[in-house]
Amino acid sequence: MSPVSENTKSDSTSREDSQIATHRLLMLSGAIDFGLGALKVGVGIVANSHALIADGIHSFSDLATDIMVWFFNRIGAMAPDDDHPYGHARFETFGTLILGALLILVAGVIIYDSIVRLMNITTVQLPAWPALLVALASILVKEWLYRVTARLGTKNRSKLMLANAWHHRSDALSSVIVLVGVGGAMLGFSWLEMLAAIGVSLMIAQIGWKLVRQSVEELVDTAVAESYVQEIQKSIEGVEGVRGVHSLRTRRMGPDVLADIHLQVNPAISVSEGHHIGEWVTRTLLEEFSELTDVIVHIDAEDDELLESRDAASIPPLRREIRAALTEAWHAEVTPEEVQKMILHYLNHQVDVELHLNKDRFTDSDAAGQLQSRLEMRVNHLPWVNRVTVWYG
Known about the structure:
Strand content: 5-15%
CATH topology of the largest domain: Alpha-lytic protease prodomain-like
Shape: rod-shaped
Number of domains: 3
CATH class of the largest domain: Mainly Alpha
Helix content: 55-70%
Distance between the termini: 47 Å
CATH superfamily of the largest domain: Cation efflux protein transmembrane domain
Number of helices: 10
Radius of gyration: 34 Å
């Protein structure tokens, strides 16, 4: 088995292992969210804690997001197909967008409920002590879930898992609100619960906004950080044969980074050597940057970013038209049978022509030089010809 095959097999096994770990964690998280939600609502009703009931509803919303994360995670891990040649990672980004919006919505509901209760502070009934125990248990369990989920999300470079981790922490923070609010209400400071709820809800909304903003940036193909792009460019310039890098474009797709690169190489080298340099650039980048998973390389003979834009009518023609025009212009000087080969170099919107003639065409070097001068004069009417060079043999 080749090293490439072994690496591919290893990567596939690693992905499968991460998927299994993710699904197990989501199943555990879903069971915990359901149990906490039912416990909070039940105890909230019995202990007369409206905050705990609201917190229970928040836990049920976590259960809904667990299901959503599981769904989008499975879709995002699917292999590329004909309809999605770049894979399905954007579905995970879409799921992160929905999750961020849901966090903002939950924060808004908590703020609204807190303001209404603050305006009717005299009618609020005091909660009982069991609400304190349930709130404390929720804080411990949800903070543990946050840490486990965040660790797995960081390992798998999954923004969706990281977003779900923050949703767990938002539930833990809302339980802190309940703990402070219930304790304060039992001590006679019932307004403390509402103020704490508003403050933490703003934190939750900020997290949701950050997730929404990052997801939208990815969906509209926003480039990665400039520092990351500079590191990529520096790595490319270190490959032998690369004369320059331009039009370096990057974008994210789920946890991955995709790059489109224009490489400038010596215009006199062969097509195969230019392609080989591009392969080395691709290999180097994939080895040095773990997030970079797809690299498209375009080989240029010059920095076309510096060239003035030209309309389609002024673009030099292709070989067939060029050969016909040159044969007609040179019919009195060179016959087609004398031409061994013709090499065309397309540079600066013009064409440099290398004409290789039979080695016995001339024995006198002066006569050969005079022929090159005459050939150049006969193509002065062709605007796309820049230079003519004649070789023998």
